[in-house]
Design goal:
By secondary structure, this protein is of the alpha+beta class. The protein has 1 helix and 11 strands; from the N terminus they run αβββββββββββ. It has one domain: Immunoglobulins (Immunoglobulin-like, Sandwich). The strands form 3 sheets. Strands 4-11-10-6-7 form a 5-stranded mixed β-sheet, with no helix packed on it. Strands 3, 5, 8 and 9 form a 4-stranded antiparallel β-sheet that branches. A two-stranded antiparallel sheet has the order 1-2. It is elongated, with a radius of gyration of 22 Å. The N terminus is likely disordered.
Length: 152
């Protein structure tokens, strides 16, 4: 009985060691999500790589003049960086500019409250580094958007 217990403990230790090795190798790569929602594996570099992950709204349709809450999500897939500008746009018009400092692998998800005046379909978009000031590892992932319908 003692031998079975010892064998069981050794097996458990070996399995745990393999899992830790697997987790450590997973930490060398990060999940990169493009604005279209497709995921790819990407090696973390020393350069920052700020990705516009998504733009969500509190509802897909609203009445003009009502409160619309916007939830943009941005993630740093690379090295730490300060002073990252992220623009929030409605049909191409800037409605808010954020300025963030990021640690490596940090995600930011600020909330913005907007009161649209006019009815119509709106594209709500976030653009990371809209003035192209940063030296990033990848700029193809700097935009994400979603649509919302504003009715009368």
């Amino acid at each position: 009985m003692k031998r079975l217990l010892v064998i069981f403990l050794i097996a458990a230790i070996l399995v745990a060691g393999c899992a830790k090795t697997e987790q450590a190798s997973d930490k060398t790569a990060s999940q990169k999500t493009t604005g279209s929602g497709q995921a790819q594996q990407k090696q973390i570099s020393g350069k920052p790589d700020i990705s516009a992950v998504s733009v969500a709204t509190s509802s897909p349709s609203f009445k003009a003049g009502d409160r619309l809450t916007i939830y943009p999500t941005v993630k740093n897939l690379g090295g730490a960086i300060t002073g990252v500008e992220v623009g929030l746009y409605a049909n191409g018009k800037l409605i808010n500019m954020y300025n963030f400092d990021f640690k490596s692998e940090e995600t930011k998800g600020p909330m913005y409250v907007w009161y649209p005046d006019n009815a119509g379909e709106y594209e709500i978009k976030i653009i990371v580094d809209p003035n192209k000031k940063l030296d990033e590892a990848d700029t193809a992932n700097n935009q994400a958007s979603s649509k919302v319908e504003i009715f009368e």
